[in-house]
Amino acid sequence: MINIKGLTKTFDKNEVLKGIDLTINQGEVVVVIGPSGSGKSTFLRCLNLLEEPTSGDIEFEGVNLVDKKTDINQLRQKMGMVFQSFNLFPHKTVLDNLTISPIKVKGESPESANKKALKLLDRVGLKDKANSFPSQLSGGQQQRVAIARALAMNPDVMLFDEPTSALDPEMVGEVLAVMKDLAKEGMTMVVVTHEMGFAKEVADRVIFMADGFIAEEGTPDELFNHPKNPRTQDFLSKVL
Ligand code: ADP
Ligand code: MG
């Protein structure tokens, strides 16, 4: 589904991504781990062109994203993104947060957008909050709304950048549970996280990033139980 070749990204003279090669298959859950500053967010942001790659190719569903002729807005509809900060529209109700893009960007009728939004809210356990405003919700609830909002666009892949890092500990589980369900249903997912338990349980493949490279990748068992690279070993000894 996504084929990344020789991806680099330089800010001024700071080379943050130094040549990433990665193929992500349909239905696969890829978890990206690594120290702070290793380029994980930049990598995700390059995938949906929130950052413009400096060099390399990213092919998504057969289209080269780096090609200037690619319609970025159409591409972004196919890639849902969930950030550490929930970024909900504060002056819109939960329901409106979910329907605004399907109506305005995709031209869905308000009736069908509402119906779908209520289904999605039910799926993330928040149907009773449809008419609440984001400020009336807990962080965990807001993040579940953010996930539902991304799903309302019917994306083919979901990108998560540390979706639970800003949450109080007691709310992490409810967000991870929603993500687990999504994975079970076959959604293609790229997840940057420090939740090693989630990585072990849900990932098909774990990528360890260090200094703008993929230092090591493998199944959760390979990476967590038999890491080969000393940098992976060192990182894991600090976080496990
Ligand atoms: P991670 O998500 O792994 O913590 P990031 O991708 O956020 O790492 O950052 C990697 C490096 O890129 C850092 O040194 C950071 O300062 C730099 N960086 C990220 N975004 C920008 C930007 N927009 N402009 C300049 N430097 C940036
Ligand atoms: Mg980051």
From TrEMBL:
<dbReference type="InterPro" id="IPR027417">
    <property type="entry name" value="P-loop_NTPase"/>
</dbReference>
<keyword id="KW-0813">Transport</keyword>
<dbReference type="GO" id="GO:0005524">
    <property type="term" value="F:ATP binding"/>
</dbReference>
<feature type="region of interest" description="Disordered">
    <location>
        <begin position="221"/>
        <end position="240"/>
    </location>
</feature>
<comment type="similarity">
    <text>Belongs to the ABC transporter superfamily.</text>
</comment>
<feature type="compositionally biased region" description="Polar residues">
    <location>
        <begin position="230"/>
        <end position="240"/>
    </location>
</feature>
<dbReference type="InterPro" id="IPR050086">
    <property type="entry name" value="MetN_ABC_transporter-like"/>
</dbReference>
<keyword id="KW-0029">Amino-acid transport</keyword>
<dbReference type="GO" id="GO:0016887">
    <property type="term" value="F:ATP hydrolysis activity"/>
</dbReference>
<keyword id="KW-0472">Membrane</keyword>
<keyword id="KW-0067">ATP-binding</keyword>
<dbReference type="GO" id="GO:0015424">
    <property type="term" value="F:ABC-type amino acid transporter activity"/>
</dbReference>
<dbReference type="InterPro" id="IPR030679">
    <property type="entry name" value="ABC_ATPase_HisP-typ"/>
</dbReference>
<keyword id="KW-0547">Nucleotide-binding</keyword>
<protein>
    <submittedName>
        <fullName>Glutamine ABC transporter ATP-binding protein</fullName>
    </submittedName>
</protein>
<dbReference type="InterPro" id="IPR003593">
    <property type="entry name" value="AAA+_ATPase"/>
</dbReference>
<dbReference type="InterPro" id="IPR017871">
    <property type="entry name" value="ABC_transporter-like_CS"/>
</dbReference>
<dbReference type="Pfam" id="PF00005">
    <property type="entry name" value="ABC_tran"/>
</dbReference>
<dbReference type="InterPro" id="IPR003439">
    <property type="entry name" value="ABC_transporter-like_ATP-bd"/>
</dbReference>
<feature type="domain" description="ABC transporter">
    <location>
        <begin position="2"/>
        <end position="236"/>
    </location>
</feature>
<dbReference type="GO" id="GO:0005886">
    <property type="term" value="C:plasma membrane"/>
</dbReference>
<keyword id="KW-1003">Cell membrane</keyword>
